[in-house]
Amino acid sequence: MKLLPFRVFPLASVLLASFVGLASAAPISLTGQILGDPRTGNFHDLFIDVTITGDTTSNQVSWKVDINTPNHPNAKLDEFYFNMIGLGSDYSFSGFNPTGWDINSPASSQGGGNMNLEFLFEALDPSGQPHADDVTNTQDLTFTMTKASGNFLASDFLNAFSSCSSDSEMPCGQMGAHLQSLQQGQSGFLVGNYAVSSSGGTPGSGGAPSSGGQVPEPNSSSLVLLAMGLLGASFWARRGAAAKL
């Protein structure tokens, strides 16, 4: 008895493979704006934009720290601070631009008062020669972050603890920065938190939310049900064809 070929089975296999791929991959796209300095007598027009991109199938994400403070054209980054879920030893860093910058853990923050819970990491130009190029309004700081065990989730950032200053005028935050060379020779401290990008991932899963006006893609549940239905149709069609022989 010879079974007749039926073309639904390969299609179902392709759909199941697609389901596996969709279930395992989701983009991570986080942003955050660090603002300062909120303290009386300090400049309040300091801004740094932070962008983090990657996906949940990888143990690496890319960071960009962008000073966006046009009222202080000579502003430069002294140190950038941030927290993560876990320990400092859970992460490593590479690919710095400007070359020569580095990240230490734990941080020893400057200019923001005493921290009752210090930041986990600090990015800085280490002391000594040669000096790295400054991070300014026209020169971003970028680097790659690698997770030692497992792949990244958006919750690794969004659920990180907040560091708080002993200065009552300074809010708590998951990120911070110390800017130098402001107008009148002042410096300032900035604080902020991670947020989901308007076009990026959702908390926890890192999945991208749909935006208005776009046709939604089929979700994974719909795809697996369709694939199982096609597999069932293939099975019964092959049995029916065999019974007629």
UniProtKB/TrEMBL annotation:
Every Ice-binding protein C-terminal domain range: 214-239
Keywords: Signal
Signal peptide: 1-25
Highest taxon above the source species: Bacteria
Pfam families named in the record: PEP-CTERM
Entry protein name: Putative secreted protein with PEP-CTERM sorting signal
Lineage: Bacteria, Pseudomonadati, Pseudomonadota, Betaproteobacteria, Burkholderiales
